[in-house]
Amino acid sequence: MIDLRSDTVTLPTPAMRKAMYEAELGDDVLGEDPTVKRLEEMAAERLGHEAGLLVTSGTQGNLVCLLTNTRRGDAVICTDQAHIYHYEVGGASVVGGLIYKPLPSHRGMFDLGELEAAIPAENVHVPRVGLIALENTQNRDGGIALTPEQQDTVIAVARKHNIPTHLDGARVFNASVALGIDVKRLTQSFTSVTFCLSKGLAAPVGSVVCGSKTFIAEARRYRKMLGGGMRQAGVIAAAGIVALTEMVNRLADDHANARLLAEAIAETPGLSIDLSTVQTNIVVFQIVRAGLTPTEFLARLKRDGVLMGPFPGTTKIRATTHYGIERGDVEKAIAAIRRAMAG
Q1: First and final CA of the chain: distance in angstroms?
Q2: Same domain, yes or no, for 182 and 329?
Q3: Which of 246, 269, 248, 240 is closest to 171 using CA atoms?
Q4: Domains in the chain: how many in total?
Q5: What is the DSSP secondary-structure string of 309-338?
Q6: pLDDT tens track for 111-129
Q7: DSSP 3-state assignment of 153?
Q8: How far apart are CA 91 and CA 88, in angstroms?
Q9: What is the extent of the structural domain holding 271?
Q10: How far is the CA of 260 from the CAs of 142, 266, 279, 341, in angstroms?
Q11: Domain check: are 184 and 269 in the same one?
Q12: pLDDT digits over 167-186, tens only?
């Protein structure tokens, strides 16, 4: 089966499995796991921050950052396509007492006028804005990579109003590879950043939060509160170290495969895609043939050995390239798409 549902389905590399087996371990909650410490230091240096914190997932990492940056009753500004708004079970509200304040996404970005208007003057009647969050790459907008210049305009507005900033960088290494720049340029100016070791980097589990030493000390308390004290977590961290040292540059292969797939979709009658959004490893397209539902289209692909994912409530489909998917797999998927549309 050619599984293009998500880059979360990757399996660890042989080097990761070996590193996990051989990892030097200790109790991380007591600060005694040397492999975790090495990963956290490596991640922080790579992203241009003082310290790092291993967490179980991107969702946990984002929630830890939201809690650390804010006070109960604060508003969190994000786009209306943000992962923290759509896919994290309302954790900011349920656990942190925070209010989501989503603004329209303009290809993953805010309109700066709308952003300014969403930050109220001091007023006893309205919640303070406690955090402004961006996502790079922007999943629901098709894997778009925000540039440093785009991000800097948002950070400038936040600093003007003395508001901290957070980057959901689940796939930020995809962005850096696509843009051909050091990942630090995309991450170092935010108050906090989280990125996934899984997904394109292919580790089996885990994300890392980065920030100042003071920020990470407080974030560690929230990680514990959320059940993220993992004891001998070096088994996880060892795979993460391999992910950072061996798996970043190969993301370009995923991007090339995604482009190949997207261009074939663009040439297929009954399907529609905006090729300008296909910048990394995510391909979002629409079914425009009358009478063909996403459910039936996906069922046809599955019978032909290809898996993709739906956007429920829409006619959109998502395909994601990743480690374990080669050019030949993409060519087979293209043939399956054409057969599905011919049926």
Answers
A1: 20
A2: no
A3: 248
A4: 2
A5: EE-TTSSEEEEE--TT--HHHHHHHHHHHH
A6: 999 999 999 998 899 999 9
A7: helix
A8: 6
A9: 250-342
A10: 15, 10, 12, 18
A11: no
A12: 999 999 999 999 999 999 99
